[in-house]
Specification:
Elements lengths: L15 E3 L10 E6 L9 H14 L8 E5 L3 H13 L2 E7 L4 H9 L3 E5 L11 H11 L3 E3 L7 H17 L6 E5 L4 H13 L4 E7 L4 H7 L31 E5 L1 H15 L5 H12 L9 E6 L13 H6 L5
Parallel strand pairs: 2-10, 3-4, 3-6, 4-5, 7-8, 7-10, 8-9
Antiparallel strand pairs: 1-2
Helix pairs in contact: 1-2, 1-5, 5-6, 8-9
The protein binds 4'-deoxy-4'-aminopyridoxal-5'-phosphate (PMP).
Keywords: Lyase, Pyridoxal phosphate
EC number: 4.2.1.22
Pfam families: PALP
């Protein structure tokens, strides 16, 4: 018999898929690490398990405890699956720009959902950073995950995502391109890959309205870079501990409109029904095309599934209202 002990046993070992149409203008082989095959439909299942297991091992999360996290949805989904399997309560704190689908999905897997305003500074008591911290202080036997600064996040990708990509490309990968939010994915995968072959280039995809690109290039945390944006899952107005700027070769920024349009193109031209950050990642990869030559093997990682965006990116009315549909 061949079965997993529980749903957590199905996390990881996701497929690698060749891009055939959208990247025609690039000579290199472009492969997508397709993370929607995880049980929570996103790459975040990997770090959710790791963060919880390490918190248990260190005694920070105790039996019957409540897990509290500020999450754009995918981490919450991953954490909720682990919480159910291991018998914890789960509270997710979201900002109000997150899609309704994400909130409904979190409730469907038993999580309590707390919604906070997006357009306030991180230090504002109403922000989702401050609210999650406050709830953790007020709730007995609770543990605040803090995916931004919790280094088990990066470790999960160093131990699983990175080695899978190396193996699936027979060590031939030359470039890794990925959206950056907490930084766990790029830092964990990037560190592992560069340890195998220091010549591998690691590129981060950032958004307009986020601080990463400017900080990487100048070392300056420029508050003028911060303004509200639409793209979900990537870009930040803080510098999370999980972003290891030393292993990142460069960032490129993708507009909200391009990210939305290319998310739809992935679905229609490649049959890849994916989330908003996948569109940003593939458009960013196309922006970097002068860096790739014929024999290169470029891996792009797609974080999450299209089902979470049917009310937005995959809704013509919303796209028209945003001015993204000509
Ligand atoms: N895309 C989506 C849809 C996400 O939810 C996240 C996580 N915020 C990312 C990209 C960025 O991944 P990471 O946090 O590992 O940098």
């Amino acid at each position: 018999m061949d079965y997993a002990e529980n749903i957590l046993g199905t996390i990881g070992n996701t497929p690698m898929v060749k891009m055939n149409k959208l990247t025609r203008e690039i000579d290199a082989l472009v492969l997508a690490k397709y993370e929607t095959f995880n049980p929570g439909n996103s790459v975040k299942d990997r770090m959710a398990v790791k963060m919880i297991e390490e918190a248990e091992a260190e005694g920070r999360l105790k039996p019957g405890g409540t897990i509290i996290e500020g999450t754009s949805g995918n981490t919450g989904m991953g954490l909720a699956l682990v919480a159910i399997t291991k018998g914890y309560k789960m509270v997710c704190v979201l900002s109000d720009k997150q899609s309704k689908e994400k909130m409904d999905i979190l409730r469907a897997v038993g999580s309590e959902v707390v919604v906070c305003p997006t357009d306030v500074a991180p230090e504002d008591p109403r922000s989702y950073y401050s609210t999650s911290k406050r709830l953790a202080e007020e709730t007995p036997n609770s543990w605040y995950v803090n995916q931004y600064d919790n280094l088990s996040n990066t470790k999960a990708h160093y131990e699983s995502t990175g080695p899978e990509i190396w193996k699936q490309t027979d060590g031939k990968i030359t470039h890794f391109v990925v959206g950056v939010g907490t930084g766990g994915t790029i830092s964990g995968v990037g560190k592992y890959l560069k340890e195998q072959n220091p010549n591998i280039k690691v590129w981060g995809i950032d958004t307009y309205g986020s601080v990463f690109k400017k900080y990487h290039e100048t070392g300056i945390f420029d508050k003028n870079e911060i303004y509200p944006y639409v793209t979900e899952g990537i870009g930040e107005d803080i510098l999370p501990k999980n972003v290891n700027f030393d292993i990142i070769d460069g960032f490129t920024k993708v507009t909200d409109k391009d990210a939305a349009v290319y998310t739809r193109r992935l679905a229609r031209e490649e049959g890849m029904f994916l989330g908003n950050s996948a569109g940003a990642a593939i458009k960013g990869l196309l922006q970097l095309k002068e860096h790739f030559t014929k024999d290169d093997v470029v891996v792009v990682l797609f974080h999450d599934h299209g089902s979470r965006y049917v009310g937005k990116i995959y809704n013509d009315e919303w796209m028209r209202k945003m001015g993204y549909l000509e």
